């Protein structure tokens, strides 16, 4: 199978609603990945953005899917931001040709706002938690997905946009740090990520081990003491002299 041959035709500077996105470097790696470095400039440093990578292959219509790094929603202003396009996965290993790249998007405005979600620093597996929010449209159907970094771990059932739901982290999710991705099932551009939180066992592992040890120890004691007690009960009375 021939290796991917990709020629980057141009780097594009994009102006977004008076703000500026400049691609400063494009690097094609031996693996077939393309690393794009860009600057996102805005006089208001507290403003957030949603940005995606596009190519000239479809005249910059659809955002590329196989992209990781500084891409997507809720991005902060700053320089030397990097995203990685896994071109080999997206185009196929036998692709030959040239494409232009463009980073474009707009100011990020969450379509729903979570109420006091940041108070949840820890979720215990198997325990129900109330999650409430405001905003969105009445016909929104929401997807709740659990992420470990850029990796999707769990997909929950769709939820109607009624402003509240109950979330239970299943027991097959490993302890660690996660975040929720909440999106509109009909509009992929409407996405909200929560802050990271810790997932822990409902019963701490040390306590589980302690309980098991106590049960095993009790069983061993009964087995060890049982025959002695039985032999004492079964012994005939001593004969009188």
What is this structure, in a nutshell?
This protein is mostly beta strands and 241 residues long. It has two domains: 5-107, Sandwich (Immunoglobulin-like); 112-200, Immunoglobulin-like (Sandwich), CATH 2.60.40. Helix content is 15%, strand content 50%.
Describe this protein's structure.
There is one protein chain. With 241 residues, the chain is mainly beta. It folds into 2 domains: 103 residues, Immunoglobulin-like (Sandwich); 89 residues, Immunoglobulin-like (Sandwich), CATH 2.60.40.1930. It contains 2 helices and 19 strands. Strands 11, 13, 14, 15, 17, 18 and 19 form a 7-stranded mixed β-sheet that branches. Strands 2-3-4-8-6 form a 5-stranded antiparallel β-sheet. Strands 1-9-5-7 form a 4-stranded mixed β-sheet, with no helix packed on it. Strand 13 and strand 14 form a beta hairpin.
What's the CATH class label of the largest domain? Answer: Mainly Beta
Q: Classify the fold: give the CATH topology of the largest domain.
A: Immunoglobulin-like
Largest sheet: 7 strands, mixed
Rg value: 29 Å
Number of separate structural domains:
2
Proper CATH architecture of the largest domain: Sandwich
Sequence of secondary-structure elements:
EEEEEEEEHEEEEEEEEEEEH
Low-confidence stretches: 218-241
- Judged by helices, strands and strand pairing, the structural class is mainly beta
Task: Let me know the average pLDDT.
Answer: 81
Shape: globular
Range of helix content: 10-25%
Separation, N- and C-terminal Cα atoms: 101 Å
Strand content: over 45%
**Total DSSP helices:** 2
Q: Find the count of extended strands (DSSP E, 2+ residues).
A: 19
């Amino acid at each position: 199978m021939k290796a991917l041959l990709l020629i980057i035709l141009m780097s594009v500077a994009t102006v977004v609603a008076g703000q500026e996105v400049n691609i400063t470097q494009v690097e094609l790696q031996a693996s077939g990945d393309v690393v794009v470095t860009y600057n996102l400039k805005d006089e208001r440093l507290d403003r957030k953005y949603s940005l995606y990578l596009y190519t000239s292959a479809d005249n910059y219509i659809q955002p590329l899917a196989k992209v990781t790094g500084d891409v997507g929603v809720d991005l902060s202003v700053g320089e030397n931001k990097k995203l990685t396009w896994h071109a080999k996965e997206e185009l196929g290993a036998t692709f030959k040709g040239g494409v232009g790249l463009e980073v474009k998007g707009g100011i990020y405005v969450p379509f729903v706002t979570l109420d006091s979600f940041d108070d949840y620093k820890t979720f215990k597996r198997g325990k129900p938690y109330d999650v409430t929010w405001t905003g969105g449209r009445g016909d929104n159907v929401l997807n709740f997905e659990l992420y470990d970094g850029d990796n999707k771990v769990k997909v929950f059932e769709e939820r109607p946009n009624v402003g509240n739901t109950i979330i239970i982290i299943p027991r097959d999710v490993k302890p660690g740090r996660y975040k929720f991705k909440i999106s509109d099932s009909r509009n992929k551009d409407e996405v909200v990520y929560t802050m990271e939180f810790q997932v822990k066992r409902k019963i701490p592992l040390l306590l589980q081990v302690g309980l098991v040890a106590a049960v095993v120890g009790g069983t061993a004691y009964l087995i060890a003491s049982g025959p002695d007690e039985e032999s004492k009960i079964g012994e005939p009375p001593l004969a009188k002299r």
